[in-house]
Amino acid sequence: MDIMIETKDLTKTYRSNGSLVEAVKGIDLTVGKGEIFSLLGPNGAGKTTTISMISGLMEPTRGDAFIGGYSITHQPLQAKRLLGVVPQEIALYPTLNARQNLEFFGRMYGLSGKDLTHRVDAMLDFVELSDRQFDRIETYSGGMKRRINIAAGLLHDPQVIYMDEPTVGIDPQSRRRILDTVKQLREQRGMTVLYTTHLMEEAQELSDRVGIIDHGEIIALGTPGDLIQQVGEQDRLIFKVGHAVVGNDMVEKIRASVEGVTQARFDPPGEEGENKTNISGLLIINAKRGRKALPFILHLVEEAGIEIESVEVHEPDLEAVFLHLTGRALRD
Amino acid sequence: MNKLWVIAFKEIRTRFTDRNLLLIMIAAPLAISTIIGLAFGGLGRTTSPIRDIPVAVINNDQPSANGTSFGIMLADLLTVGQLPAGTSSTLSACTQHPSQSSGGTVEGSLTLSNLINGISFDETVAQGLVANQTIAAPAGSPDSPEYLEAAARAAIDKGAYTAVVIIPADFSAALTSLADPRQSLTSTSIEVYGNAGQGLSAGIVRSVVDSITAQMISGNIAIGATMKEVATQQPALLASASSSDISKLFVCAFSPGNDLIQLADVPVQAAPTSVAGAILVTFGSSQALFFALFTGQNGILSMYEERKNWTLQRILISPTPRWAILGGKLVGVLVSVIFQLLALVFALTIVGSLIEGHLAFIWGTDVVRLGLVLLAVAVAVSGLGILLAGVLKGIEQANIVGSVLNIALGVLGGAFGFQLPRSVAQVSLIYWARDAFDTLAAGRGDVSLNILVLFAEGIVMFVIGLFLFSRRFNA
User: Fold this and answer.
1) CB B227 within 8 A of CB B66
2) What is the pTM of this model?
3) CATH of A234-315, one of 3.30.413.10, 3.30.565.10, 3.40.50.2300, 3.30.70.1340
4) pLDDT for residue B254 is more than 60
5) Superfamily of structural domain A3-228
6) B475 interfaces chain A, CB cutoff of 8 Å
7) What residues in B contact A152, CB-CB < 8 Å?
8) Per residue in A48-57, pLDDT tens?
9) Does B399 lie at the interface with A, CB-CB under 8 angstroms?
10) Which run of H or of E encompasses B80?
């Protein structure tokens, strides 16, 4: 398989409050041609810094990154020609219309004349917004802006596309359309996709391989199936307990006494994290053969006088892998 | 290089398609200037509410050796609006320009000297004011110059006059020395005391006195040059010339319609001498410059905004050299500021013409110099913008400091309707630009120093700012 993205000892250190901080610690990574690779990591893990160095926005302190064999530090213009970027932000000029935006960014990649016109037309067709091309971006819906944002990244027909959470803040229908677009890019154009997301189901659906980064290091790398295997095919049980408080002794008792339980923790109400509603406390338990462990856990909890509002059983997925490896939810 | 122009074009396009920005760039200064122009100029009126400004004129001048009294000429121009009766008869000896009015009376369209209602402030007037208790009796003898000057100043304080013009005793002697190569040069000064509470009116008085005396001085210099030439070529002819011959020459130099020098018809030469025009130029240029400061700064500082919105990163990720990105931004800002100023110049010309009821070139007719001033202003404003971008950290800090700085420059430069002493005002680039616009509007073409200062300020700030900003930009 041809390698499209390669990093060698990619390192970034910077000075903060007088001391040196190593944000990225010598990452070695390869992504093959036509591969969809998702880079996952909690905030502050070093994901953005890594991507910034790969795309030439930031100079590495040590090491190098290569796009299609071109060094981003020594041959930046050649490397950048092969790379398209779809940032998380709507990186468009709101007072210009869609066509003017695409023409501008096309020119930044050296397109001009008929070639530019043809590519802009093709991209507007691709994201199905030809009929709105002369409307100002500021008049578009969130989903439409995201689609033009993608079109701007694909305009110069890059071999590698980096997409940073392209589905943030849009409705399910638009999200579905974008995910289908990503698949099309790989299947129809053989494009290499470097993808970051906070939504594990997206990563699981799209990715050929996933890299999990934490504290500036790749801590897990492989296909979603491989990674799930790594955590031992554990189920995740989530007990919603309202305003009740599950003490550490109770959590420890569950972990120690129930067969198959490997991890247990309590998220009190009002805390951010997996407890999205912030109303109920959550008792979260990872267990092999979770369904078998469920009645024993229920017994212990009820015995302690804690009223359970609901129970969810999650089969193993990337979310569990991430939690297992980092001890944090992806949104933490 | 091509990408630099693409970025510059984008910059201009985004700027001029942003309605909010257009509001700040053009609509706000235009509206403020128009309101002030209408308030002081009067829509559709040929007369101005600012007229008959009460001015006390104290003439201490002693006639020169040949009997000529320039003090009387100046005093009469200020008080009765025409040259002294004795000199009128001699005007027929001078060549008349067919397009200009005859005689010494100031006629025709509204001119700045029409605005003044000068009163010869003598002992009688002073004692009248004391008698009706308008002022307290000054110390000293009523027939002494000191008494008169003190009484006039007291009358200004009481609001009886807007200004007092004191013509010095050696006024004629000084002017004569300019024209007669046989005499050594002497200098003198006319004192104009203004009421601080009536800055605009006092300013007009100063302008009138300044323009008339400038006319006298330039006339005498011209005659002096001629006489010097005569003295060199034909010394015998000069020796035989009587004082009255020279005196006649002097009179011709100030006569309206004379080809050499024009005084009465055009006290502020070739200028759109209407009040509305003058006010529109002064306030319009001040407001245009004040808002141009914001345009220049916002243009450069929008780099921070682009970084926040990720459009800058999107460009940086493309195969575009950083110098082209920075250069494009700067060219875009420069052109935007010029467009903004040009739009205001055109718009205010239309407003001025509407107020006057005819096409009025309120900015003067020297298009080349006007263009140079606009370019110099754009360079200075952009230079300040990039200096701020280089020195300040982040858009929030830049917005606050930039606004405070702009207001300070506006205050110093006279953008808010009041003038600070010139030595203080000169700190502000607004002063230099406004002064250049006023000078061009008044038909006096020498704005070289203004242009030089603006270019120099702009280039120095530009170089320092570019160095600092590039360092941060590449970090």
Assistant:
1) no
2) 0.61
3) 3.30.70.1340
4) no
5) P-loop containing nucleotide triphosphate hydrolases (3.40.50.300)
6) no
7) 314
8) 899 999 998 8
9) no
10) none
